[in-house]
Amino acid sequence: MSADPIPQDVARTPLHALHLRHGARMVPFAGYAMPVQYPAGLLKEHLHTRSAAGLFDVSHMGQIRLTPRSGDIADAARALETLLPIDVLGLKPGRQRYGLLLDETGGIRDDLMVAHCGDSLLLVVNAANKAADEADLRAHLSDTCDVAVLARALIALQGPGAEAALARLSPEGSAHEVSAHEVSAMRFMDVRALDLLGTAALVTRSGYTGEDGFEISVPEDRAEAVAEALLADPAVWPIGLGARDSLRLEAGLCLNGNDIDSSTDPVEAGLSWAIPRVRRRGGARAGGFPGAARILDALEKGPARRRVGLRPEGPAPVRAGAQLFGDETGEPVGHVTSGGFGPSLQAPIAMGYLPAALTAPGTRVFAEVRGKRLALAVTALPFVPAGFKRA
Amino acid sequence: MRKFTDEHEWLDCTGDVATVGITSHAAEQLGDLVFIELPKVGAKLTKGEAAAVVESVKAASDVYAPVSGEVTEVNAAAVADPASVAADPQGAGWLYRIRLDDPASLDGLMDEAAYADFAK
User: Fold this and answer.
1) Are A275 and A295 in contact (CB under 8 A)?
2) Is B70 contained in some domain?
3) Which pLDDT score, from 0 to 100, does residue A4 have?
4) In a domain, B111, yes or no
């Protein structure tokens, strides 16, 4: 039952010393020593993020800047559209969008965020895939773009108290061009360059918890000062990877490698919303991305199986890997890809894949746990309503 | 006298019946507990088999039978309120009682000082 020791060869984020100072329990994750929880514990950290604000170190994620060699951002956007089934060309300056890197069969290699920073595009990619993504981007985009991996920290500030906490660091009337007013003026998926304690930060109003919040990119040597200044606010607690996972599961968000991978395509993963009309059949820039033929077919025909939310009827959590059944005796028809306990719901929750015929909310299915078949109800996602600031 | 196992369990033996729980060290490692499954009263356990399950938000952990014997009682309050086990794992948060097949099976287990050293 004891925790695995952290191997010597794992990397440290710029906030490593801060984590230790705040009493974090560190674990190896995607090649980095990361805080899994702080002394408050996962349940309290989770609930605090939903009711106030939580600060997450997500510096392990990759930040990759694409700068068009021509100086025309549309060239970078067009080039990136050869890898992603999304509308990059239509992304406005100061806006961010969710995207998927696909393989030739339409399987999901990675999911990422694309921000339009005016003269460049900034991608935020998953930690475990950042080397592969960088190689992929260099291989396909080097003719049109300079591809640069940024040595910057990334701090997520999430929860209903995030705006107030961030605005305090960006005081009105500062000598710089930004102010607290600009923080509160930001909407969900906006991107702004903000001055935080004299540091040039790139801030997006987005996150991975289902709450309103921000992701704050700062130079590595300024990360600790910015994070400590945010944590000086009693409303802001440091939050570990444990609560990050339970928060995103309640929000119905996919964990790359669990809920989506090369064996799942965007349509069955319930991510068709990320593929706009302009990239579908009949659209002005239809197809032209890896696996397009298969994905465009699937968008028209509908998927054979689909990712769903699941609520176990009993108190026992159903974990990733559990097989799913349509009844109490038959053969498996699907499997659970994420599962645990939802602290906001005070009940176990899960996500998994089921045949299309079994995906209507309220459908009763079964999961095998320790040799027993436990009943679950198919449930609409998210489990907890999103708190994004859209208007 | 209280005994401890290298699987981070404790046993208090009275006569031939032992009360079994997880240690404070184990509880601390597991974090907040949200679900507990205990063996049925009357179940015959063999040393080393999974006897109970304790689940945190993140993970499920088996609790192995530290000795062989028959389950005589389980802590229903722990099942009803898993947080009580995390709060007082070596007291009110006991898990089950077992009648030992062989009282001598406790002989090889650690005392508190030896366990404290082991769990460092």
Assistant:
1) yes
2) yes
3) 53
4) no
What's the rounded Cα separation, in Å, for the pair A329 and A167?
A: 57
Total structural domains in chain B? Answer: 1
Domain A1-302 is in which class?
A: alpha beta
Contact B58 A316 (CB under 8 A): no
Distance CA B88, CA B23 (A): 9
Chain A residues whose beta carbon lies within 8 Å of the beta carbon of residue B29:
1-3
Q: Is the pLDDT of residue A148 over 60?
A: yes
Given a cut of 50, whether residue A186 has pLDDT beyond it is yes
Q: Which chain B residues have a beta carbon less than 8 Å from that of A1?
A: 7-8, 22, 26, 29-30, 61
* Residue range A94-99: mean pLDDT, rounded: 98
Residue B117 resides in a domain: no
| Domain with residues A304-391, CATH architecture | Beta Barrel (2.40)
A127 band by pLDDT with thresholds 50, 70 and 90: very high
Q: What is the distance between the alpha carbons of residues A195 and A100, in angstroms, rounded to a whole number?
A: 30
Task: Tell me the two tokens of residue A111.
Answer: 């999911």
Domain ranges, ordered by start, for chain A: 1-302, 304-391
A317: chain B residues, CB-CB within 8 Å: 34-35, 55, 60
Each residue's pLDDT tens digit, A163-179:
999 998 876 655 555 57
Nearest-neighbour CA in chain B from A340: distance (Å): 6
So what's the pLDDT on residue A391? Answer: 82
3-state secondary structure of A52: coil
Which range of residues forms the domain containing residue B85?
A: 3-102
Does the distance separating the beta carbons of A246 and B29 come in below 8 Å? no
- Residue in B with minimal Cα distance to A3: B29
For residue A5, what pLDDT band results from cuts at 50, 70 and 90? low
Residue B22 belongs to a domain: yes
Query: Tokens standing for A380?
Result: 């609409």
- Residue B29 Cα, gap to closest chain A Cα (Å): 6
- Collect all residues of chain B within an 8 Å Cβ-Cβ radius of residue A316: 35, 37, 55
Tokens 């009949």 correspond to A282
pLDDT in tens, A199-238: 999 999 999 999 999 999 999 999 999 999 999 999 999 9
CB contact under 8 A, A2 and B25: yes
β A332-342/B3-4 pair status: unpaired
ipTM of the complex: 0.90
